[in-house]
Specification:
This protein is an alpha/beta fold and about 400 residues long. The chain is built from 13 helices and 15 strands. It has helices at about 25-40, 65-75, 95-115, 135-150, 205-210, 230-245, 260-270, 275-295, 310-320, 335-345, 350, 375-385, 385-395; strands at about 10-15, 45-55, 55-60, 85-95, 120-125, 155, 160-170, 170-175, 180, 195, 215-225, 250-255, 295-300, 325, 400-405. It is elongated, with a radius of gyration of 26 Å.
Length: about 400
């Protein structure tokens, strides 16, 4: 990337972060991760520079900002974890207040002409350069007076329909209108890698999203029972990972066959504890993948009491198969809230398509909701060595890599 040279005719996006600003001495690390992720998310677009200045990140464009570029930037920036808000800004070189007043009035007039429902406005000035002789309240007053005289709009400092942002820098002033909402949270890569056990259902994609928002790089593992079940769960899981892909620089999905392990359990273990045994072996297989990719924890979509395997007792027995921590971000979340989140992130319509889950293969009619650890221990002792089945499943696993930005087709 090359510097834009401060060309005022080129576009500029001001990225604001919230939680990162509370990190004290570690803030530069978090901001550096966010800048790196921004560059990756914006690959293929005319970006001249991404730099951190005055507790903001400035994305300077190498081309004028037209409607198509603005729409693409909004979509991509809106998916980057760690961004609180972002704004498309105009740079006014030399810092003349008379021109700033004129441009601020034009900004509000354009918003009104575009059909925005605006009855009140506010002006929010921040001086990144404290040597600028006019204090922020005075700048707010002067610009506000000009906008009010030109448009007739009222002022509402606390709950304005439109807030005009002003940033005073050493060599220029930035002017922008409404801020667009980001994902907030922490930038992906600021926390450890984790492996998420991803089904085709509603819960686990939402759990994965919440962990991504805490800065973890997520590697996905999906267990299937092909060829004894149809391929639908695999195809839907691929669609789910594609839907979640914009939230991190690159997504990996491992498709692991579980059917032979399930068949052995179905033949040799009592049916009432079969599902818990399935899940314990999923945990062990997921930990093998975690060791391969350097992950430090597992993630599941468990929510207490939703299904028989998710009672506190059964979750405890499942946890006993793990050597890594199991993160359960939805553990106390109700189904209605999970569904609302799934709709918001776009996974609900995918998750509600018909499919055969691997746990539905050889599912017992009456699964035990209070499995005892000693019963599981006896059942697993009776199964005998499982290493051959485990390594066979891992050897037949498929790895898929899904980029953050969809690859363009054609020339």
């Amino acid at each position: 990337m090359t510097a834009s040279g401060g060309d005022a005719t080129k576009g500029l996006v001001v990225v604001h972060y919230a939680e990162l600003g509370t990190k004290g001495k570690n803030r530069s690390f978090f901001v550096g991760v966010l800048r790196r992720n921004l560059r990756r998310a914006l690959v293929g677009l005319p970006i001249a520079n991404v730099q951190s200045r005055h507790a903001r990140i400035f994305v300077e464009l190498a081309a004028p900002l037209d409607d198509d570029l603005r729409s693409e930037l909004s979509a991509r920036l809106g998916a980057v974890m760690g961004i609180a808000t972002f704004s498309f800004a105009e740079r006014i070189p030399g810092r003349p207040l008379d021109r700033l007043e004129q441009e601020a009035c034009r900004l509000v007039e354009r918003a009104l002409a575009g059909g925005a429902a605006i009855r009140t406005f506010a002006v929010d000035t921040r001086r990144g350069d404290k040597s600028f002789p006019i204090p922020s309240p005075e700048i707010n007053r002067r610009i506000g007076a000009a906008i009010g005289a030109r448009t007739g709009l009222g002022v509402d400092i606390r709950n304005a329909d439109l807030t005009v942002g002003v940033e005073v820098l050493p060599d220029s002033i930035l002017l922008y209108g409404e801020r667009e909402e980001g994902q907030r949270g922490l930038p992906v890569g600021a926390s450890a890698r984790v492996v998420s056990l991803l089904s085709s259902g509603i819960d686990s994609p939402v759990a994965s999203y919440r962990i991504l928002a805490r800065g973890c790089r997520v590697i996905y593992v999906h267990f299937h029972s092909m060829p004894y079940t149809k391929r639908a769960s695999v195809d839907l899981t691929l669609d789910l990972v594609r839907q979640l892909a914009p939230y991190q620089p690159k997504s990996e999905l491992y498709l692991v066959p579980l059917a032979e392990i399930q068949r052995k359990i179905a033949v040799e273990a009592q049916s009432s504890i079969r599902v818990v045994l399935y899940r314990r072996w999923m945990i062990r297989l997921a930990e093998k993948v975690a060791a391969k990719v350097g992950a430090r924890a597992l993630v599941t979509g468990d929510s207490i009491g939703q299904v028989a395997s998710q009672t506190v007792e059964n979750l405890s027995v499942t946890q006993g198969a793990a050597t890594l921590p199991i993160l359960r971000p939805l553990v106390a979340t109700g189904k209605e809230e999970i569904i609302r989140m799934a709709r918001r992130i776009g996974t609900y319509d995918i998750s509600t398509q018909p499919y055969e889950d691997c746990c539905a293969f050889l599912m017992p009619q009456n699964p035990e909701t209070h499995v005892r650890p000693e019963d599981v221990a006896r059942a697993e002792d009776a199964l005998g060595p499982m290493d051959d089945l485990v390594w066979d499943a891992l050897g037949r696993a498929e790895r898929h890599v899904i980029p953050c930005v969809p690859e363009r087709k054609g020339p």
